[in-house]
Design a protein that fits this description.
It comes from Marinobacterium iners DSM 11526. Keywords: DNA-binding, Transcription, Transcription regulation. This is DNA-binding transcriptional regulator, LysR family. InterPro entries: LysR-type_TF, LysR_HTH_N, LysR_subst-bd, WH-like_DNA-bd_sf, WH_DNA-bd_sf. This protein has three domains: about 5-85, Orthogonal Bundle (Arc Repressor Mutant, subunit A), CATH 1.10.10; about 95-165 and about 270-295, 3-Layer(aba) Sandwich (D-Maltodextrin-Binding Protein, domain 2); about 170-265, Periplasmic binding protein-like II (D-Maltodextrin-Binding Protein, domain 2, 3-Layer(aba) Sandwich), CATH 3.40.190. About 40% of the residues lie in helices and about 20% in strands. It is built from twelve helices and twelve strands. It has helices at about 5-20, 20-30, 35-45, 65-85, 105-110, 110-120, 135-140, 185-190, 205-215, 230-235, 245-250, 280-295, and strands at about 50-55, 60, 95-100, 125-130, 150, 160-170, 170-175, 195-200, 220-225, 240-245, 255-260, 270-275. The strands form four sheets. The protein has a five-stranded mixed β-sheet with strand order 4-3-5-12-6. A three-stranded antiparallel β-sheet has the order 10-7-11. A two-stranded antiparallel sheet has the order 1-2. Helix 1 (about 5-20) crosses helix 2 and helix 2 (about 20-30) crosses helix 3 (about 35-45). The radius of gyration is 28 Å and the shape is elongated. The protein starts with 6 loop residues before the first helix and ends with a helix. The mean pLDDT is about 90.
Length: about 300
């Protein structure tokens, strides 16, 4: 039987099985090839099986080795996960970099609030913001290329872990000097005005889809990739744009823009945190999610 002291032998077995070569196993484990050969000899004696046969195509596992691999691989994964879970994240001393996916609206409205709390609690940690790409964000999370995604990403529900921050709805903004609209626009006025359309990559394309399903469409005069350009474009134009109400409130605060409800019913949408279970540093990820939730919920 394998004893506690033989756990390293199991890792050698897994490396040989997965690499099909003693030399590649040694390279992966950062030990010498003679050490791998010695460990394999001990394993053969302990398990009473040759385990591998040397061929021109590499080390071919025996039937027994195939059975051992399933058990050993699962066991090692559980052990490594338990060790990772036991490692406690220390925010006061950590220098870890957190990678967070945000839209440009998230960078404008959410990031300052989140950074404030992260830097208070973990002054030496770093944050790298990645611009959310709708078609890639699920893969980024599953491959642990990012730690957290924040935004209107409801399509990720059921595919990742998530936690709701708040409900949101859309409004339209326009210049206080708009030459035609002076109050809440009617549906006809809204449809006939010149609109700014922000790229679907932003995740905010509900309004176009909603109107298209009803045989209506807005008159798009300008396509831009980011919402953040709106305060510089709209004040001296007759263009209008639709965006989430919280950001609309921030954009109109200087006094040169005004916001109105949309002239048709629109459901609310959720802004949430999205993440997957970390295999590398679960306690750090749990800490980040907790900080983000308390910093951003119901703002």
């Amino acid at each position: 039987m394998l004893r506690k002291s033989d756990l390293s032998l199991v890792k050698v077995f897994l490396a040989i099985y997965e690499n099909g070569s003693l030399s590649r196993a040694a390279e992966e484990l950062n030990i010498t090839q003679p050490s791998v050969s010695y460990s394999l000899s001990r394993l053969r004696e302990l398990l009473n099986d040759p385990l591998f046969t040397r061929t021109r195509d590499g080390m071919i596992p025996t039937f027994a080795a195939d059975q051992f691999y399933q058990v050993f691989h699962e066991s090692i994964c559980k052990i490594e996960q338990a060790i990772a879970d036991a490692r406690q994240f220390e925010p006061k001393t950590s220098t870890r970099t957190f990678r967070i996916a945000l839209s440009d609206l998230g960078e404008f409205y959410l990031l300052p609030k989140l950074l404030r709390d992260i830097h208070i609690k973990a002054p030496n940690c770093k944050v790298e913001v990645v611009t959310t790409e709708i078609e890639k964000v699920e893969d980024w999370l599953s491959q642990e290329r990012i730690d957290l995604a924040v935004g209107n990403l409801s399509f990720l529900k059921g595919r990742t872990l998530h936690k709701k921050l708040f409900d949101e709805h859309y409004q339209c903004i326009l210049s206080t000097k708009h030459t035609r609209i002076r109050g809440e626009p009617t549906l006809d006025e809204f449809l006939n005005e010149n609109h700014i359309f922000i790229s679907k990559a932003s995740g905010h394309f509900y309004i176009n889809d909603y109107l298209g399903e009803r045989g209506k469409q807005i008159n798009i005069a300008l396509h831009i990739p980011h919402f953040s350009a709106l305060p510089g474009i709209i004040p001296d134009s007759d263009l209008i744009a639709c965006l989430p109400s919280r950001v609309a409130k921030e954009f109109i605060s200087p006094g040169n823009l005004v916001s109105f409800p949309l002239p048709f019913p629109t459901p609310e949408f959720e802004v949430s945190l999205y993440w997957t279970e970390s295999t590398d540093d679960p306690s750090a990820l749990r800490w980040l999610c907790e900080v983000a939730y308390h910093a951003l919920k119901d703002i």
